[in-house]
């Protein structure tokens, strides 16, 4: 089943063409890797899929299961694109709790579980302003998975993670795939792509070229 479909998508910024008639389908229960050089448009692609920006032409269709009439954005998507702005003066847990309270769907225990899954201590008293880059990355990951989101859109999820954390996040993503979740990720590390991805798309000549 196709979860996200791109049909003839074109996008440019100030005369710089990023996509031209790009077409691709991303399937349920698979891990999809998006590769391409710096500035090729990986983050822009993810922002278009999540409805944050719009293609100049063409269509991006999301399975209606992930649509809600009341929202312009897809629902049940866990997203990491750019580094989110957390509140520095409170702990990681408190940040996630405030975000979780917006939907009011999960318990404190589920927030703690998500933090533990990415090797963050939910009981730590350290404020986010004192977090390292890798810890902020883990917090973003915890946010993306804490509501048990079915589709994960992860731009550079391994960025700044130490070797042990890379290993545990890889295992986590493979476990999510087994559960039937759909994952799109970017990485500049070929090993991540080779180990994790069922399908790989390369941004090449403004299109999404299937390489695996
Ligand atoms: N809001 C914007 N206004 C103007 N140009 C933009 C905007 N957003 C992105 N761009 C440009 O689009 C191009 C693609 O950016 P994008 O962040 O998608 O690249 P990327 O493939 O994710 O790169 P990297 O591998 O370095 O993360 C870049 O040249 C960027 O400057």
UniProtKB/TrEMBL annotation:
SUPFAM superfamilies membership: P-loop containing nucleoside triphosphate hydrolases
Sequence ranges assigned to domain ABC transporter in this UniProt record: 4-212
A GO molecular-function annotation: ATP hydrolysis activity
Source species, domain of life: Bacteria
Cited InterPro entries: AAA+_ATPase, ABC_transporter-like_ATP-bd, ABC_transporter-like_CS, P-loop_NTPase
Database matches in CDD domains: ABC_DR_subfamily_A (cd03230)
Alphabetical UniProt keywords: ATP-binding, Nucleotide-binding
Record-linked PANTHER family: ABC TRANSPORTER, ATP-BINDING PROTEIN (PTHR43158:SF7), SKFA PEPTIDE EXPORT ATP-BINDING PROTEIN SKFE (PTHR43158)
Protein name: ATP-binding cassette domain-containing protein
Source organism per UniProt: Paenibacillus lutrae
Source taxonomy: Bacteria, Bacillati, Bacillota, Bacilli, Bacillales
């Amino acid at each position: 089943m196709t979860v996200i479909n791109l049909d003839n998508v074109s996008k440019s910024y100030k005369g710089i063409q990023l996509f031209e008639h790009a077409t691709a389908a991303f399937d349920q229960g698979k891990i999809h890797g998006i590769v391409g050089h710096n500035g090729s448009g990986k983050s822009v692609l993810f922002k278009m899929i999540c409805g944050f920006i719009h293609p100049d032409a063409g269509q991006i269709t999301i399975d209606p299961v992930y649509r809600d009439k009341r929202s312009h954005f897809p629902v049940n998507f866990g997203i990491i694109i750019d580094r989110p702005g957390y509140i520095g003066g409170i702990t990681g847990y408190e940040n996630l709790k405030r975000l979780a309270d917006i939907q009011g769907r999960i318990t404190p225990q589920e927030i703690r579980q998500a933090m533990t899954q990415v090797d963050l201590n939910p009981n730590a008293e350290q404020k986010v302003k004192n977090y390292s880059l890798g810890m902020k990355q883990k917090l973003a990951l915890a946010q993306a998975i804490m509501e048990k989101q079915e589709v994960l859109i992860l731009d550079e999820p391994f960025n700044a993670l130490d070797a042990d954390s890379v290993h545990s996040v890889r295992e986590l993503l493979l476990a999510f795939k087994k559960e039937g979740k759909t994952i799109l990720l970017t990485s500049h590390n070929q090993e991540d792509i080779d180990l994790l991805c069922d399908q790989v798309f390369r941004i090449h000549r403004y299109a999404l070229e299937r390489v695996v």
